[in-house]
Specification:
The protein is 40% helix and 18% strand. By secondary structure, it is of the alpha/beta class. β3 (77-81), α3 (93-98) and β4 form a beta-alpha-beta unit. The longest helix is centred in the last third of the chain and has 28 residues, at 301-328. It is globular. The chain starts with a helix and ends with a helix.
Length: 329
């Protein structure tokens, strides 16, 4: 573990940022650390940047202080959280390039160096980057504001503690966070379950138009630009659809994709223990975790589905081959 206080000790200006299309963990980890730094080091200039912050998380302390346009200032320290790859910084990449020093806190597989090893805290089997921020701050330094941020990050990235990345440590940390003064049930409802009417309509359409492939082991659904325009919707309105698809009985892998521009699709993958979607996403230019990953591909929706399912089929064949060898032994 890095010593965050030692890293920021001699820095007078600090910038924090996370990936484009920030999710609950991106918000929770970034705002949790931001709250800590602002209170412990009020004499330092500390700024937080995000591209198109989602108003779903506007209940978090510090949300209103998020900067949406990157500065050309050369910060003494740039801290990347929940990034995976510096390309996911989008236009905020200039903050990293202009900074005198960089640090990184992350739990993504396939991490690509953003900061030197001495300034990097990467734990691939952690439930969330928010969990790592909790460890860096230390339980004694957590207060009401940082607690609600970190709790939000953990809740969203573990699917309210149901995903395989949830560990005993995760539950112990969450238990401690619940001793602070915020409405824990409200956080779970607003950050994970509550949907707008538009989101409910898109979820219904995605499920209605989904198809089963590979003997019902794979479920696929596609939302086109035309559909998004019809509902006057954006990518934010599609959050949570792939997780709902994964709940289909008998399904090992859920594939949800939406068209970002003509001929380009953002693909989200969810799986159970039978298929490692991180391997698939990484091979096709994306990344993520064993059970939750994503990528972007060009071509028709059929091209994308064929490429992804070919990799799924390959894992099934490898698994069958391994099972056959074990039976022979």
């Amino acid at each position: 573990m890095i010593d965050i206080d030692q890293i920021v000790e001699n820095k007078q200006s600090i910038a924090l940022s996370t990936h484009i299309r920030p999710d609950g963990d991106a918000f929770g980890s970034s705002l949790g650390l931001y709250s800590y730094l602002k209170k412990k080091y009020p004499e330092k200039k500390t700024d937080i940047y995000m591209i198109e912050p989602n108003p779903l998380f506007d209940y978090l302390p510090g949300y209103e202080e998020i900067l949406t346009e990157p500065s050309e200032e050369s910060y003494d320290l740039f801290i990347a959280l929940d990034m995976g790859d510096k390309e996911r910084l989008g236009k905020n990449k200039i903050l990293l390039e202009n900074a005198k020093e960089a640090a990184c806190i992350d739990h993504h597989l396939g991490y690509k160096g953003i900061a030197p090893e001495a300034n990097s805290f990467i734990v691939e089997d952690a439930s969330s980057t928010a969990e790592l921020v909790y460890e860096l701050i230390g339980s004694e330094e957590i207060d009401d504001e940082s607690a609600i941020c970190i709790y939000t990050g953990i809740v969203t990235d573990t699917g309210v503690f149901q995903y395989s990345n949830t560990s005993r440590k995760t539950m112990e940390i969450a238990g401690h966070l619940m001793t602070f003064d915020f409405d824990h049930s409200k956080v779970v409802n607003e950050a994970f379950y509550e949907k707008t009417y538009r989101q409910t309509l898109l979820l219904g359409r995605s499920l209605l138009e989904s198809i089963l492939l590979m003997d019902g082991k794979v479920i696929v659904s596609v939302i086109t630009q035309r559909t998004l325009r019809f509902y006057n919707a954006s990518s934010r309105d599609l959050e949570g659809i792939v997780s709902q698809m994964k709940h289909t009985k008998g399904v090992d892998v859920a594939i949800f994709m939406y068209e970002t521009v003509t001929g380009e699709f953002k693909v989200s993958l969810r799986s159970n223990e039978n298929i490692n979607v991180e391997v698939i996403a990484r091979k096709l230019g994306g990344g993520g975790h064993d059970r939750a990953a994503g990528l972007t591909m060009t071509g028709s929706s059929y091209d994308v589905i064929n490429n992804v399912t070919a990799e799924i089929e390959k894992q099934y064949r490898e698994k069958e081959s391994e099972d056959g060898v074990r039976q022979e032994q």
